[in-house]
Design a protein that fits this description.
mainly alpha; Transcription Regulator spoIIAA; 2 domains; two-stranded antiparallel sheet
């Protein structure tokens, strides 16, 4: 791809300025809310939004995309923080290491793999994230302490009636009402920002006694170079890898959305490199990890942003806020941020996937709900791994159940009547054919094994590969086992119509060694002629 500095950053200065400033206004309450929800403090949300917003846009691969703290990244970080509150250095070290992993993912060109994650997995994952955000924000909405996971939050729901802070509850519910009702007045001003200002002003004016964000450092953040022992590095490696995978999935899903909105095509691998650099920068200043944020990216695009400058301007706006109004932001009620996040959680739910229950194939619904349950109650990365694995196995089963391949005794092949006229009837009844129509994988071999058990008095088996586009290791080895069984029954096997690619694959895996030499033919007639010769 030819690089153009003007085309990348300066092709649409006015539109990008408006898009970046508007997105910065939208991102401000999100950054504060995600920072508080993570357990690292509101400043961590601002630092993360600022650093990832600027650097991911500078080096990323998706025009108009805006990066910052997101639901999936914050939820995973909060889980980690809950277990390592006394060691914040390890948390930020994990963010930096996650960024390094993402750069590595980009360099090995793994970005296209996102296109192979099935929709039910994405649906279950995103709905699970929405459930987590919503459930863990219920206690702070009522003025109680926030907890890091759904199970613990559910347990403490019982404490809400006796420990409820009425003033915090009023502010939290007011924030939710403003977010849902304010668009009826105007859609030009972001509802979360309106909720943030109105709720904060009311709580200050009436001197409400409720939990607030607390002190936010004013000015530029300090550079923090984390240090750790080898044991600590070993401990955070899986955390960092999980953050990197979740961040890449989250970002590249947003990239796909932005492709449809902007009409441009993103560079998945460059996007991962940009996200990695952004997260390294965020970790170095004590910020939350970030990813491509769908809602903020759409706001940028709809406000006129078309290049990478919008994300940079959004980050610079947050930097200005951090330098100028940090002390004022410290007065924001936590229940107001909880209300904002609850609306975010509800918006993340995949309603399209949930509405498909009863309409979509039952296998897809099963994958979606298993992914959802694992996301909420077990582990985010485990949910994706299990979801993809289960979806793959169920798809393979469905494909094998279709039984695309065909088989028949030679005597029943009407289209070969002319070829068969000179073959004795007694020999025709002993010749069977099996035609693979599609990939040769373990599911199709299951059908093949079942078929050969039903062949009666078979002496020769001609296997046709004309329509085989690929063969995997499982399919090749399973085919070997089937050939060995046929040999024990004194059945001679012939391979017909293999493409050079399929032949090379079977040779490399040793499958061709299992049949007799010179039993591979280009045509069905050549194999048949060999059978006649051997009979004579």
């Amino acid at each position: 791809m030819k690089f153009s500095l003007k085309g990348r950053y300066f092709a649409n200065p006015i539109g990008d300025l408006m898009g970046g400033l508007t997105t910065g206004v939208v991102a401000l309450p999100m950054a504060l809310a995600f920072g508080v929800a993570s357990g690292l403090g509101a400043q961590a949300g601002l630092y993360g939004a600022m650093a990832t917003g600027i650097f991911a846009a500078l080096f990323g691969g998706t025009p108009a995309q805006v990066t910052g703290p997101t639901g999936p990244m914050t939820v995973f970080t909060a889980t980690f923080v809950a277990g390592h509150l006394k060691e914040p250095g390890l948390i930020f070290a994990a963010v930096i290491l996650a960024g390094i992993f993402q750069i590595f993912f980009g360099l090995i060109k793994s970005g296209q793999l996102i296109r192979y994650v099935p929709y039910p997995v994405i649906s279950g994952f995103m709905t699970g994230i929405g459930v987590i955000i919503t459930f863990i924000q219920i206690p702070p909405l009522f003025g109680l302490k926030s907890y890091g996971d759904v199970e613990e939050s559910l347990f403490h729901y019982l404490e809400i009636p006796k420990n409820l802070n009425l003033q915090a509850t009023i502010i939290g519910l007011l924030a939710i009402a403003i977010i849902y009702l304010f668009p009826l007045i105007t859609k030009k001003i972001p509802p979360p920002l309106v909720a943030l200002f109105i709720c904060s002003i009311i709580s200050i004016y009436y001197k409400m006694d409720l939990p607030r964000i607390g002190e936010i450092p004013r000015g530029l953040p300090d550079l923090k170079i984390p240090t750790m022992t080898f044991t600590e590095l070993h401990m955070i490696l899986p955390i960092a890898l999980a953050l990197a995978v979740i961040g890449s999935i989250d970002s590249l899903l947003t990239s796909l959305v932005m492709d449809r909105v902007t009409g441009k095509r993103h560079d998945s691998d460059q996007e991962q490199i940009g996200q990695g650099i952004g997260n390294i920068a965020s970790g170095l200043i004590g910020g939350l990890p970030g990813a491509g944020a769908t809602m903020r990216s759409l706001v940028n695009a709809k406000s006129g942003g078309t290049t990478f400058s919008g994300g940079i301007i959004h980050g610079l706006f947050l930097l200005t806020v951090l330098v100028s109004i940090g002390p004022i932001a410290s007065l924001v009620p936590i229940s107001c941020l909880a209300g904002i996040l609850i609306t975010v959680g509800i918006s993340i739910l995949d309603y399209k996937g949930l509405m498909s229950v009863g309409k979509a194939p039952k296998e897809d619904i099963l994958v979606m709900f298993i992914t959802l349950i694992l996301t909420v109650f077990v582990d985010l990365i485990m949910a994706v791994i299990v979801g993809v694995a289960l979806a793959s196995v169920l798809f393979a089963k469905k494909l094998s159940d279709l039984q695309l391949s065909t088989h028949s005794s030679f005597d029943n092949l009407e289209h070969l009547v002319e070829v068969a006229t000179h073959i004795p009837e007694s020999l025709r009844k002993k010749i069977y054919t099996y035609t693979f129509n599609g990939p040769l994988f373990f599911g199709e071999i299951k059908n093949f094994n079942l078929t050969i058990t039903k062949m009666k008095d078979v002496k020769y088996l001609i296997i046709k590969f004309y329509n085989v586009p690929l063969v995997d290791q499982t399919g090749a080895y399973a085919l070997e086992d089937a050939i060995e069984q046929l040999k024990e029954q004194s059945v001679k096997v012939f391979f017909v119509g293999m493409t050079p690619i399929i032949r090379a694959s079977l040779e490399r895996m040793g499958t061709l060694d299992k049949i007799e030499e010179n039993n591979c033919f280009d045509s069905f007639e050549a194999a048949l002629q060999n059978i006649q010769v051997s009979e004579n």
